[in-house]
């Protein structure tokens, strides 16, 4: 694995370690108020970044260009804004709603960019 695929897989592992730590904290403290944060770190973070990593690994024609690098950085920065914003929001800091919203919208934009990269690539390689 190399390039964008490796970057995504590294990001995925970081999400898994952070998200499971939040899960363990919830289980040990019996305080599940961060469930939404944990769920998004695990599925939008660990699982989605892993899918992107394996996609770019299996379809290297999609991984080489500038767009794939933009996809990585937009996903990484917006995803971190989304989950860090959620963490503070769930802790009761409503001022973080704007940050969470910005993260969410940019995360969606990153997914649109992925559609634009991935769909033509799979039809080209089919
Ligand atoms: C160290 C391992 C983990 C621990 C201790 C843990 C703990 C928890 C806890 C305490 C909850 C809240 C349950 C509730 O209040 O109903 C939860 C929910 C959740 N966890 Fe984990 N978790 C772990 C790993 C994972 C993994 C690996 C994933 C996914 C890849 C995951 C995905 C979720 C999701 C999606 C929810 C929300 C479920 C719902 O909407 O009802 N968790 N977890
Ligand atoms: C554009 C970014 C996203 C936004 C704005 C968003 C928003 C939300 C909202 C408002 C909820 C309900 C939370 C609650 O009732 O407390 C939720 C739950 C959930 N979302 Fe997302 N979501 C986003 C992306 C994703 C993605 C990409 C995934 C999976 C790959 C995902 C998986 C889940 C899961 C598993 C739950 C249930 C866990 C829970 O109830 O806390 N979300 N999301």
Short description:
The chain has 126 residues and is mainly alpha-helical. The protein is built from five helices and no strands.
Account of the protein in words:
The protein is mainly alpha-helical. The protein has one domain. It is built from five helices and no strands. The chain has helices at residues 3-29, 35-58, 60-63, 66-90, 97-125. Helix 1 (3-29) packs antiparallel against helix 2 (35-58). The longest helix is centred in the last third of the chain and has 29 residues, at 97-125. It binds protoporphyrin IX containing FE (HEM) (2 copies). The site of one protoporphyrin IX containing FE has 10 residues, from helix 2 and helix 5.
Structural class: mainly alpha
Cα distance spanning the termini: 21 Å
Low-confidence parts lasting 5 or more residues at pLDDT below 50? none
Portion in beta strands: under 5%
Largest sheet: none
Helical region count?
Answer: 5
Query: Average pLDDT across residues?
Result: 96
Q: Please give the radius of gyration in angstroms.
A: 16 Å
Helical content band: over 70%
What string, H for helix and E for strand, traces the elements in order? HHHHH
Bound molecules: protoporphyrin IX containing FE
Shape: globular
* Domain module tally: 1
Count all strands and give the number. Answer: 0
